[in-house]
Design a protein that fits this description.
This protein has helices spanning about 25-40, 45-55, 60-65, 105-115, 135-140, and strands spanning about 15-20, 70-75, 80-90, 90-100, 125-130, 140-145, 150, 155-160. By secondary structure, it is α+β, with helices and mostly antiparallel strands. Helix 1 (about 25-40) packs across helix 3.
Length: about 170
Amino acid sequence: RLLPPLLRAEPVSTMLTVRPLAHTDLHAANAVCISAFMASVAPTLDEEGINTFLAIAATEAFAARMAQDNLILLAERDQEAAGLIELKQGRHLAMLFVAPDRQRQGVGRQLLAAVLPHVHGDLLTVSAALPSVSAYLDYGFECCGDIGRSAGLTYQPMQLHLPPAPLASAATMS
C-alpha cells in the first residue's frame, strides 16, 4: 500500500524499531500509555474518563485485546518503549500514544506508517482525544463528525483516506 504523502517522510531516527507487542511488553505498554495520557489527555477529563482510560490501558486489558484481532505495535528506541499503536478490526485506531520524552521525534508518524499496511480498505478511523486532534490533522486525518462523549472520554471522530493498495499483476494468458 502506498503511504499518504505526510507519512512518507524519512524516519527521524534509524534507532527506532517497531514490532508487534509481546506479552513480556505489557507493563512497558501500560507505562507508555499512562504517562502520555496523564501528561496530555487526563487534564481535560473528569474522574470517570480517567478511570475508563486506566481500565482500557491496564496490562490485563492489553493481553485480552492481543488475543482478539487487534494489532498492537510497540516502538522502541534504545531498548525502551517509545510509543504504541493499536489497530482494531483492521480499520480503527484504538490507541496511538508516544512517551512524553519521545514526542515530536517522528515516533507517532513511524507507528502510523507501520500499521497502514494492515488496514483493510481505504479508510482508517480514530476517535481522537481532543488534545491529539492537531497531531492527527498533521498526519492527514480529517474531522468527520461532531465531538462525542462515552464513559467520560471526549473524542473527535476523524478519518484518513488511504490510497488503494496496488493490484497484484494479473497472470498473462498464453
